[in-house]
Design goal:
With about 475 residues, the chain is an alpha+beta fold. It is about 30% helix and about 15% strand. The strands form three sheets. It has a seven-stranded mixed barrel. A four-stranded antiparallel sheet has the order 11-10-12-13. The two termini are about 35 Å apart.
Length: about 475
């Protein structure tokens, strides 16, 4: 069973209790039980003497990513209650965070005091997050590969739907990642080690996209809206759970590895050496294994597979139903920044039982803002409207698009029927009987009005997405 995002008003799902136990712990429970029995025996023998466990061998066996779980006052993802988030960073630490990025594109962790729904978490850590959103800060390579600012410009040109630009002078504009365990090993908040503060307000298209993916039974992320204050400035922000080890170990009923694709990655074979891929894919769980081999095996096969081999044996290595559903979903939502976009926004899941790879959605702030006339199977275009210059200097390199797994699957005549069937099934689930519009207005009712978002701005944003849904449905129903 996947974690799914419910429409506003429903209680957010709880993960299965067994999946709150790390994979390595589940796999080696007998050894754990033996060690606990030994510890109890020693305690009984030594009385009040303090026992400090000393573990040798494979430390991943005993690893538990959260040992100090901050319970909080209310469920962060309960949409029936209002939420608040406050972040305070000293001026010195704030400047260090900005300067490190401007100088070297280094997303430096700095210390901050965080208050969530009234619960104080001292000495948390925050860092900048994202790529194209951070272009306004400067930096040598800000934004997706090749997506540099025009010479002399201090910000990317306007015209990209959904594009949000951060500014150092406005801390509320910064996309941040909050870590609860960076400065306190083992600490978590309600089972989370990290929380993403999404840029822009109210980005209701992203919240709706997360919910729509959830109701189709696909893996997604939980979210909530909050009145967000950072260094004294208040606005409205979407908070999204960030895929961490706990998320990875509870995403599916089976065990597996979760990998995040880096923005500069390409799903291309570059040899057998795992270190070559270390800056392209980050392993989220069981990280001490350092096991990128499942990805390398897939890439090596793709590199040598002709069309006949691809069509006949892709399903031996990839969960093709899951892949079809992922690709159809991104097309239905017209998300130009998916696994084939310049940000390479996706995760890969390798199922240890089935020995197959599937794709997990991530970062949907540009969904539901593209061309509503995009056809099923057509590559979603991402870029400025006609007459608006692109984000690159004269003679510069254009942003990199494409993903060979996505392209080859969509171009395959053999897999076309699978994609088509899944596409219209998902369409009915997302848009049939006005589902998307009902969910949109339910979500809007949970968005707090703050100094950074008034009633009119929220109404306009909801109206824009509502109109997009109407055009998208009309376009597809005319086929």
């Amino acid at each position: 069973m996947h974690d799914v995002i419910r429409p506003a008003g429903d209680t957010p799902p709880r993960r299965r209790l067994v999946h709150r136990v790390p994979v390595r712990l589940r796999q080696h429970w007998k050894l754990l039980a033996m060690l606990i029995a030994v510890a109890i025996g020693l305690a009984a023998t030594l009385g009040q003497s303090r026992i400090r466990p000393y573990i040798t061998g494979d430390v991943t066996i005993m690893r538990s990513e959260i040992t100090d779980n901050v319970v909080g006052s209310v469920d962060l993802f309960d949409s029936d209650v209002p939420h608040t988030l406050s972040v305070d960073i000293t001026d010195a630490e704030y400047q260090q965070m900005i300067s490190a990025y401007v100088k070297d594109d280094d997303k430096k962790w700095v210390t901050a005091d965080v208050v969530i729904d009234g619960t104080v978490i001292s000495d948390a850590a925050v860092r900048l997050k994202g790529n194209s959103t951070l272009m306004g800060l400067g930096g040598g390579h800000a934004g997706p590969p090749g997506a540099h600012r025009p010479a002399g410009d201090e910000a990317p040109p306007a015209g990209f739907p959904g594009m949000i630009t951060a500014s150092a002078e406005d801390p509320t504009s910064l996309p941040l990642l909050i870590s609860f365990d960076e400065n306190a090993e083992g600490r978590g908040y309600q089972g989370l080690t990290e929380l993403s503060v999404r840029p822009g307000t109210p980005v209701i298209n992203e919240a709706l996209s997360l919910s729509l993916i959830g109701v189709t039974g696909q893996p997604t992320q939980r979210y909530s809206y909050a009145a967000y204050t950072i260094n004294g400035q208040t606005t409205t922000r979407l908070l999204v759970e960030h895929p961490d080890e706990t998320y990875a170990n509870s995403l599916f009923d089976t065990d597996g590895y979760l990998y995040k694709a880096d923005a500069n990655s390409r799903l291309e074979y570059r040899g057998v050496d795992q270190s070559v891929y270390a800056d392209q894919f980050k392993q989220i769980n069981a990280v001490d294994d350092g096991n990128l081999q499942p990805i390398i095996n897939l890439l090596a096969w793709l590199d040598g597979a002709d069309q006949k081999e691809f069509d006949a044996h892709l399903s031996d290595r990839v969960d093709t139903d899951s892949l079809a559903r992922y690709l159809a979903t991104q097309n239905l939502l017209v998300n130009g920044d998916d696994m084939g976009g310049p940000g390479q926004n996706y995760y890969l899941w390798y199922d240890l039982s089935a020995e197959k790879i599937s794709v997990v959605s991530w970062d949907l702030n540009l969904a539901m803002s593209g061309d509503t006339a995009t056809l099923p199977g057509e590559d979603v275009k991402m870029g400025p409207p006609e007459g608006v210059e692109g984000m690159m200097p004269a003679g510069g390199q254009a942003p990199q698009f494409g993903n060979q797994l996505k392209t080859r699957f969509l171009e395959s005549e053999v897999w076309a029927a699978t994609y088509r069937d899944v596409y219209w099934e998902l369409y009915d689930q997302m848009f049939g009987d006005g589902a998307a519009k009902t969910m949109l207005h339910d979500i809007a009712a949970t968005v707090p009005i703050t100094d950074g978002l008034d009633e009119q701005e929220l109404s306009t944003a909801v109206g824009t997405v509502d109109a997009w849904i109407t055009k998208r449905m009309n376009s597809l129903e005319a086929l």
